[in-house]
Amino acid sequence: MSGRWSEWLLKAVGILLMLAALAFAVAKAPDRSLESLVPRWAPPPSDFIELDGLLVHYRDQGPSSDPLPLVLIHGTSASLHTWEGWVAGLSATRRVISFDLPGFGLTGPNADNDYSDARYVAFVRQFLARLGVGRAILVGNSLGGEIAWQVALADPSRVAGLVLVDAAGFEFVPESLPLGFRIARIPVLREPMRWVLPRRAIEDSVLDVYGDPSRVTAALVDRYYELALREGNRVALMRRMDQLAPGPVERLGEIKVPTLILWGERDRLIPLRWGQAFEKGIPGSRLVVFPKLGHVPQEEDPAATLAALRDWLPQVTP
User: Fold this and answer.
1) Which domain holds residue 155?
2) Domain with 127 in it: what CATH number?
3) What DSSP string runs through 174-234?
4) 20 to 30 A from 242, CA-CA: which of 12, 94, 224, 308?
5) What is the mean pLDDT of residues 92-103?
6) Do the strands 96-99 and 54-61 form a parallel or antiparallel pair, or are they unpaired?
7) How many domains does the chain have?
8) What is the pLDDT of residues 279-316, one digit of tens each?
9) Nearest Cα to Cα of residue 295 among 316, 257, 265, 315
């Protein structure tokens, strides 16, 4: 009897090992080079500039004569593509600048693994100076919103207006954390993520941040998945998660420029109470809530969110 049991156990272990090897083979996702991703994700008007040791992916669209360009800053694990709906609606009459932050999109990781707020703020200031932008309206979603309001504090003469879209900066206490972020925060689980990344994990993460899951398309998931595989981006996400910290929210009252706050009511990553906290903290700010949208409302429903922006823009003067 014991011999049969041992034989059955060995077969079971063998089957499990075969299944594990098959799962690894299916989910194996090696890094992709920048060159391999450019044809699909950086067609014209995309461009690249060397800055801070990086080759930065950006787009500068609309009339160059616009005295007050809009600078669009994406969030964690996103890219300039998250703003495409807004750019399409704005660039006929306004200069619109978007770019991939270090560690994300096609810009990729920086050499010293510094993804602190301070480093991002310094990077954005260098980037604007390099493009010759004097004053601008800074627009940011999630991490991008946190960078935007901190730039407004660090360099107020450069910021004429501020748009915070489900912005970060207060204590990070999500009601639901996307699967990809959860893995990146757990040392034991995240190491295999360097080589293994099931597309389904990215799909689940995108579904988690959308208010209306029916808006999530296969093409959208492809974009997030392929850019996550850009060489170095997965490790950069891990390092960013290690460096998360609240911003100097006690200084929000020092922001004196017109400020619009846009928030998806179904945001479970940075819930609406933090949008209300920004409204309370920034004098004269205006909060607009979108009942059916989630954490990336500008991507989920560009038309509705852009309408709110257009209503507010006349408050900002060059």
Assistant:
1) 34-315
2) 3.40.50.1820
3) -SS--HHHHHHH-HHHHGGGGTB--HHHHHHHHHHH-SSGGG--HHHHHHHHHHHTBTTHH
4) 224
5) 98
6) antiparallel
7) 1
8) 999 999 999 999 999 999 999 999 999 999 999 999 99
9) 265
